[in-house]
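Much of the work behind modern protein science is quiet bookkeeping, done one molecule at a time. The protein below has been through that process, and both of its lines are reproduced in full.
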Amino acid sequence: MPMQIAKSLHAAVLVSDLERAEQFYAQVLGLEKVNRPLKYPGAWYQLGDFQIHLIVAPRVGDTLVNEEKWGQNRHVALGVVDIFAAKEELEAGGFPVQMSASGRAAMFVRDPDGNVIELTQI
């Protein structure tokens, strides 16, 4: 019998500067920080029954394999209520965004370490 995956639990994102990353994930994206019972540096954010785990790494390199189309790189996808309001807010905060080339209501933004986050209107 094949393995049965029941649900997605979390995604781990490597960051070089925890304070700077927390400012982005908590204040810019508005995610809720939750208790993290581990001793090594990091932070956890809750989104419904899914979490994003920030893990501090000694070096985090720019991992884009396709610089022209951010969506064709490793990324975490999140749903937003109003894609255009999110776009305005990110750009006002100095975060460049790239709209999806597919024509759907989606865009991509990069965190301070260059990790790609997809935001799709739900």
Remarks:
- The radius of gyration is 15 Å.
- Residues 24 and 111 are 7 Å apart (CA to CA).
- Residues 10-121 form a domain with the 2,3-Dihydroxybiphenyl 1,2-Dioxygenase; domain 1 fold (CATH 3.10.180.10).
- The first strand starts at residue 10 and ends at 15.
